[in-house]
Amino acid sequence: MGNSLANNFGQFFDINVIQYFQTLISNPFRIAMFVLDIAIVVFCVRKIMTQVKDTRLWQLIKGIIVILVATIISGILQLTIVNFLLTQFMTYFVFALIVIFQPELRRFLEQLGTRKFRKIFGLGIKDKEIKTKEEIYKVAIAAAEMSQSKTGALIVFERDIRLNDVIATGIELNAEISPQLLVNIFVTRTPLHDGAVIISNNKIAAASCMLPLSNDHNIPQELGTRHRAAIGISKETDAIVVIVSEETGKISIAKDGTLIADVKDETLKKILIKNLIVEPTEQEDKTKLNKAS
After folding, report:
1. pLDDT tens-place string over residues 251-263
2. Apex CA 143: angle with CA 137 and CA 145, to 5°?
3. Can you give the pTM of this predicted structure?
4. DSSP E strands: which ranges in 135-279?
5. Which of 31, 100, 154, 217 has the most CB within a 10 Å radius?
6. What are the pLDDT digits (tens) for 196-236?
7. Phi, psi values for residue 106, rounded to 5°
């Protein structure tokens, strides 16, 4: 079977390019399918590139492209030894990068089928979990109060990637969001203060949840476990995390595996609103207008 597949691929690549396009031109249907094929590939590649350009995956893709181009050029120039080394290196290089970039690849695959990914491809759907400014303000009020009293806090906003496995590690609450409840949860020596609060479906889903710690060696040594946990969960998922330092009282935000440190009250609100409030689709706007009229 393997030889048969190899022969089929060999026959395909042995086809004369001129003959192929002559056959293509003589059949209008095949022309249309060829144009559609190219358009789909270009559209998908462009959308995926736009999605990953600001992540470490972009560096991975650029590295692979450089090595592929070098391999092709060495083959054309008949640089046998260079081509052999690059071919062998490419095999192990790809596997190594998959291991190194496992969190980013996992996150990208988990986003397939989510609201965010469908929106990228123009397939917006009605989102039942639209975050409201009122709820964001409640979290901001609680964070400001805990900042003044230097009460350590870790608040995770679930977005498209579900955090059910993280919620399962804590105490399920399913409570309405309020500044008073958030502050009380994180008061030192209370049963639920140690761990993270998960906000899901516009409610406090659970408290005292355990988050994965980031093993990134570039994280400053002065940052403690709370900040490492926030960076870790924001790197593995698309969650937005609000951190209040117990030592300094400073508020930080973790997003996409990076930390925005020493965030002021108004800046905190703006960042949360920008990342958590879902813009309604055009169809939803029309529906709301029809109901209003």
Report:
1. 999 998 889 999 9
2. 105
3. 0.58
4. 153-157, 171-176, 196-200, 203-209, 240-244, 251-255, 258-260
5. 154
6. 999 988 899 999 999 988 776 667 777 788 998 999 898 88
7. -60, -45
